Amino acid sequence: QVQLVESGGGSVQAGGSLRLSCVVSGFIYRRLCMGWFRQAPGKEREWVATLVSEIVSSGSATVADSVKGRFTISQDNAKNLYLQMNSLRPEDTAMYYCAAGVAYSSGGYYPEGVKYWGQGTQVTVSS
Fold first, then answer.
1. Which one, of 97, 87, 92, lies nearest residue 124 by Cα?
2. Is 91 in a helix, a strand, or coil?
3. Chain segment 2-60, per-residue pLDDT in tens
4. 28, 5, 18, 104 alpha-carbon torsion, rounded to 10°
5. What sign for the dihedral angle of Cα 4, 7, 12, 18?
6. Cβ of 63: how many Cβ atoms within 10 Å?
């Protein structure tokens, strides 16, 4: 059983930065793919970034093209997950969700491939 709790969301101006945190508990896999998804009002949930890691490892990371060069996903030795978001844009406004047990299929990562979800944290970017 895995539990995820996000924090760090808020309101910032375009060009600003935020760092999202996800406290992870109940880790039961030696190697588990984790990541971040986001969902804006009226839109489908979309993949943002993923990280595959051991309990104590930096793992390997990948991010969506829409945030490449601006967002960085990472994990500490306590298993907690982070999303550093720089150069934020109004189009980044969304509810951001921490995810665990993210499966890779059909050439990408999709919400239907996620086994566990956090409650989400709101990110609002104004122009």
1. 92
2. helix
3. 899 999 999 999 999 999 999 988 865 656 789 999 999 999 999 999 987 654 455 68
4. 40
5. negative
6. 20
